[in-house]
TrEMBL record:
GO terms for molecular function: cysteine-type deubiquitinase activity; zinc ion binding. This is ubiquitinyl hydrolase 1. It catalyses: Thiol-dependent hydrolysis of ester, thioester, amide, peptide and isopeptide bonds formed by the C-terminal Gly of ubiquitin (a 76-residue protein attached to proteins as an intracellular targeting signal). The keyword Metal-binding applies. The lineage of its organism: Eukaryota, Viridiplantae, Streptophyta, Embryophyta, Tracheophyta. GO terms for biological process: protein deubiquitination; proteolysis. Its EC number is 3.4.19.12. The keyword Protease applies. Residues 172-367 form the USP domain. Keywords: Hydrolase, Metal-binding, Protease, Repeat, Thiol protease, Ubl conjugation pathway, Zinc, Zinc-finger. Belongs to the peptidase C19 family. InterPro entries: Papain-like_cys_pep_sf, Peptidase_C19_UCH, Ub_carboxyl-term_hydrolase, USP, USP_CS, Znf_RING/FYVE/PHD, Znf_UBP. It comes from the Eukaryota.
Length: 367
């Protein structure tokens, strides 16, 4: 799969379960105000921005998008226009091509990227020949995926300073596949334990795992865990990344202070196969993924429990229940996690917590 097709597939997975037809699309009111949009040379009507521009599909206004948390992006003129007029739909200029399904349409009223089945008609109202336009900007989904994949964690560290890069065995990073930090964090912890290191690295070579795998090693979890363990622990991939020169000459490269890491795509495909949540590109809970992983590791080692590394996480719990009558009962079970009750009344950020609850209640009330 080439890089372009792979990126397209990731974006499709990112948006497939969230993008729906807008409730405004089929009966959208468009003003007969004589506005004709040129094929290029766009600029925000309120400022000098020439990128991140949105065309309001009701009155043809061209305005800049939202300002991002870090100060980049637009100046909020498009959303401010919606707040003043109530005109709900806008399409991002620079994402309109002959493939209208890929155009970025946003509904301010529904606060989401949406589908407009009548987008061709809505664009023609303003004289736009979409068949001749070329893509020049990322869609909202592509930008979200790009920011998740290439996020610079130094920007949110308390010190705000660059950390010293480390290289060698045990210092290999996992590439963010887009909202896959839950997987990366969990697997780094798993392979810091003796049980997982011995089972899939010290006591099993890649050749041995390949030899014991079924007909297709690409769908064998034991093979993929071994492959991931050797990638993380061997140090083979924990080396400074190379950077091509400005002309793209592969022969003229320099070493950078960062490593490329390894992308766990095949492992994610196997461990998440047929799972309704982990098979998507959405953010997930690390604890839920940990329990899913433990369950799958137990299954593949059911015939040889002595080799099961998940046993190192298992412990016994005995619960004592006493009735008012004085009778006592004991309940014993095995578990992998120990829940800790957090007294919310002792929280030091009660005001922020209350604001969050009010905001969540308001959103739930709006549906």
């Amino acid at each position: 799969m080439n890089q372009g097709a792979e990126k397209k597939e990731q974006v499709a997975a990112w948006t497939a379960d969230t993008k729906v037809v807008s409730k405004h699309a089929m009966e959208l009111k468009q003003l007969d105000n004589g506005v004709i949009i040129p094929p290029s040379g766009w600029k925000c009507q309120k400022c000098d921005k020439t990128d991140n521009l949105w065309l309001n599909l009701t009155d043809g206004s061209i305005l800049c998008g939202r300002r991002n948390w870090d100060g980049t992006g637009g100046n909020n003129h498009a959303v401010n226009h919606y707040n003043a007029t109530g005109y709900p739909l806008a399409v991002k200029l620079g994402t309109i091509t002959a493939d209208l399904e890929a155009a970025d349409v946003y509904s301010y009223d529904e606060d989401a990227s949406v589908i407009d089945p009548l987008l061709a008609r809505h664009l023609q109202h303003f004289g736009i020949d979409f068949s001749s336009l070329q893509k020049t900007e990322m869609t909202t989904a592509e930008r979200e995926l790009d920011q998740n994949t290439n996020f610079d964690w130094n920007r949110i560290q308390e010190s705000g300073q660059e950390v010293e890069p480390l290289f060698g065995p045990g210092y290999t990073g996992l590439v963010n596949l887009g909202n896959s930090c839950y997987l990366a964090a969990t697997m780094q912890v798993m392979f810091s334990t003796r049980g997982f290191c011995q089972r899939y690295y010290s006591n099993q070579s890649l050749k041995e795992a390949f030899g014991t795998a079924p007909a297709d090693p690409t769908v064998d979890l034991n093979m993929q865990l071994t492959k991931l363990a050797h990638g993380l622990l061997s140090g083979k991939y924990s080396i400074p990344a190379t950077k091509k020169d400005d002309a793209g000459d592969a022969a003229q490269t320099t070493l950078t202070a960062k490593q490329e890491g390894i992308p766990p795509r095949m492992f994610k495909s196997v461990i998440a196969a047929k799972h309704p949540e982990f098979s998507t590109m959405r953010q997930q809970d690390a604890l839920e993924f940990f329990l899913h992983l433990i369950d799958q590791v137990e299954r593949i080692n059911i015939g040889s429990p002595t080799f099961d590394p998940s046993r190192s996480f298992k412990f016994g719990i005995e619960e004592r229940l006493q009735c008012p009558s004085g009778k006592v009962a004991y309940n014993r079970r095995h578990d992998y996690i120990l829940s800790l009750n957090i007294p919310l009344h002792k929280a030091t950020n009660k005001n922020e917590l209350e604001d969050f609850r009010k905001l969540k209640a308001e959103k739930d009330a709006r549906g």
